[in-house]
Amino acid sequence: MYSLFGEVDFAQKVFDETPQRDIVMWNSVLAVYAQHNLAYQALVYARAMVNAGLRLNGVSVVSVLSACSSLKALREGKIFRVMSIKNVVSWTSMINAYSYSNLFNEALTLFQEMEGENVTPDEITMLSIVSICSKLGSSELGDWIDNYIKKNRFKKFQSTTMLNALMDMYAKCGNIKKACEVFDWMIKRTLVSWTTIIHGLAMHGYAIPALLRFSHMQREGFKPDGVVFLSILSACSHAGLADEGRKCFNSMIQEYHMKPGREHYGCMIDLLCRGGLVNEAFELVCSMPEKPDMIMWRMLIGACRNQGDISLVDEISSHLNGNGMGPKCSEDYGLLSNVYAEAGQWVRVKEIRKEMKIKGLMKLDPGFSSVEAY
């Protein structure tokens, strides 16, 4: 509270006079110094926090980094050098600091230095490294982690949380087969486990296996959330499984009483358009509780163009103009113009181009090219 009024000294006094200090209190005093750009004091308290045997968490790291005027201090390892006790806690804290700052290569280099100092990583360290590999999405790094775990026989790290992280890493690094193997090994599975494997399968285009896992998940008594439904709808869309996608979407609303988000509607519209069910897609867009964005309307118009359904394009245009959602940019006008041009409706093309000129969305003196004949 004192920090809100600029009373840094009083905040420090309260901290110093408190005998029992938990992570919340340490983070509070770090935040005070960070908010007042007192970088040196923030680093001193970060060191003291580690020396007291506490691990810097995400809140701690954000405070320390925001206190620094730039990431130069972090890159040079100054934060780490002020920590007198370099144990697994301090090493992991520094690795997390690099990770939070998207300095992934530096984090991996530090992990290798940690190995060189014969400091054995704990599960939190490995979770950080696995998370970094997931973000980078490198198959080589995925193989490296796999071999590292096997080489060091980290059986004590086979918790559900760790296995979920490994599954996610393997999937994002392109090894969906290995992700499935990890899932099959798991004795205890959580909703995160099911969500991770279904998303991984969907991401790699394995719609049928994703649907099978989805059914299995429900038989096991797990209630799917919006993330799972989004993965399933996306998989069905790219695989052209309109019926299955429609069933999942209806199940989301009717069976699980969930309110679909804009992303769910977007997947369904894409699915129906890909399946040639443009009229159904149009009805779905019109029934949305939220105002559809122009991306959805472009998907519809593009699908009409592919199927040569000019009458529906007219209906969509009338609907948009009637609701004040007509074309706003040159891309929208260009799409409509191309649709009508391909259908040979040059009167409509002329009307659209005239409207573009009036709104200043089209050059009055377009460029030209010439060819000289000899």
From TrEMBL:
PPR repeats by residue range: 87-121, 159-193
NCBIfam families: PPR
Record protein name field: Pentatricopeptide repeat-containing protein
GO molecular function: RNA binding
Keyword match Repeat: yes
Pfam families, per the entry: E_motif, PPR, PPR_1, PPR_2
Keywords: Repeat
InterPro entries named in the record: E_motif (IPR046848), PPR_At4g14850-like_plant (IPR046960), PPR_rpt (IPR002885), TPR-like_helical_dom_sf (IPR011990)
GO biological process, any: RNA modification
